[in-house]
Amino acid sequence: MMHIPWVAVFLSLKVACSALCIDLVIGIPLSFLLARNKFYGKEIFDTILTLPMVMPPTVMGYYLLVALGHNSPLGNWLQFLGINLIFTWQSAVIAAVFITFPLVVNPSRVAFETINTRYEHVAQLSGISGIAIFFRIFLPLAWENILANALLAFARALGEFGATLMVAGSIPGKTQTMSTAIYEAVQEGNDYEANSLVILLSLICIFVLIITKYLSSRKTWARTE
Amino acid sequence: MNFFIDFTKKLYTSNNSFELNLRFRSQEKVILITGPSGSGKTLLLHSIAGLIKPDKGKIILNRKTITHTEKNIFIRPQKREISYLFQNYALFPHLTVKQNIAFSLVKGIFNPRRKQTYDLIYPWVQRFELEHLLDAYPSQLSGGQQQRVALARAMINQPKTLLLDEPFSALDPSLRTKLREEIDHWQSLTQGLLIIVSHDCEDIKIFKGSHLRIEKGSCV
């Protein structure tokens, strides 16, 4: 285990954790709104949200590279603010968020949609406000499902390669994550490092999947209903 | 007027539409609503509760105008002082019996605590013989127990109007009698308005009051 580049391991974990937080903070309210409201263009919006699941990550990475680059309005504006995201670990987070967002939003939306509206009706008639109903009824009833899928998204973010390489590159000690480090190690013929990293990454993913399985098989109130 | 409705509501599903067009008034304390399934009984209860908004018209409950589309009056369900006993009780599956009953006592973004004691629930807990079930989850209860919990949860709100959707359909005769006694007791205490939906003719004989029959969205 001496040859594991721990910087890359910790960077991977940092990127995946940050991406997961952003996914949850933006994704849960968004999936709730999608579950509850009909609006013009919802289908198109839905399609765009799901796109990262079918598109090659390199294509998503290319879009991001163009969007954040100096020639785009967004990139220009960021540069004006003194922010340069390309080839930073923050851009790896953005890439991971892009790729994993549908993994959080789509299942959360289904989880919210399947909650019986009568619970909400009872709560309304009990004098509970809309925002409180979200925290007291919807979130607890959907939570396990959301969490199980968030863990899958975390595992996916941990292994993100294509989009990350496009926007963040693979600068050792700066933007090199586990998956890009594996690629580099193989290219350099450093089999020992590649093997160690592959085993470690596999173990982390297996661990996450076991937790996910446990969460979704746990027999609680919701499933015995 | 104790109970007055005069409203229309049009609903669209994927390939057809349904129109509810009702006009009825009563001074009684019990309103019995009957009709075949799909006639709009539940929609009427939802309109009274404020869970759906009529397109046009007026609803008065206990001398209070709660919906009046022309005057732009629509009291939120939270402020209507109505309790609604759903057919399958709709107990919150993630909360214990105690938390379910105490649900309306706590208004913020947190549910009642599992470990805390709520004194206000005890009169109802005793009345419905639920002492030994306080820490159970709804999925662990029988149908009759679930109904008692739902009724306790409905009563603790101190509603001025009680809506019952097919309350007797799932109960055996002895439980029916018991439930009827409880409802009579509530009414003698509060002089509240009782609105019962049923497609069971037996219920009409049991409860004395106005009878509203709906067919295909209209009064008969």
Q: Could you walk me through the main structural features you see in this protein, from its secondary elements to its overall organization?
A:
The complex is a heterodimer of chains A (225) and B (220). Chain A has 225 residues and is mainly α. Chain A has helices at 6-36, 42-54, 57-68, 73-80, 89-113, 117-125, 130-158, 162-168, 178-188, 191-217, 221-224. Chain B is 26% helix and 28% strand. The longest helix of chain B has 18 residues, at 173-190. The mean pLDDT of chain B is 88. Chains A and B meet through helix 6, helix 7 and helix 11 of A and strand 7 of B.
Structure at a glance:
The complex is a heterodimer of chains A (225) and B (220). Chain A has 225 residues and is mostly helical.
Separation, N- and C-terminal Cα atoms of chain B: 21 Å
| CATH topology type of chain A | MetI-like fold
Task: Sketch the topology of chain A as an H/E string, one letter per element.
Answer: HHHHHHHHHHH
Q: Average pLDDT across residues of chain A?
A: 90
Helix content, binned percent of chain A: over 70%
The quaternary organization reads as heterodimer
CATH architecture of chain A: Orthogonal Bundle
Q: What percent strand of chain B?
A: 25-35%
Instruction: Please describe the biggest sheet of chain A, giving its number of strands, its sense, and whether it closes into a barrel.
Output: none
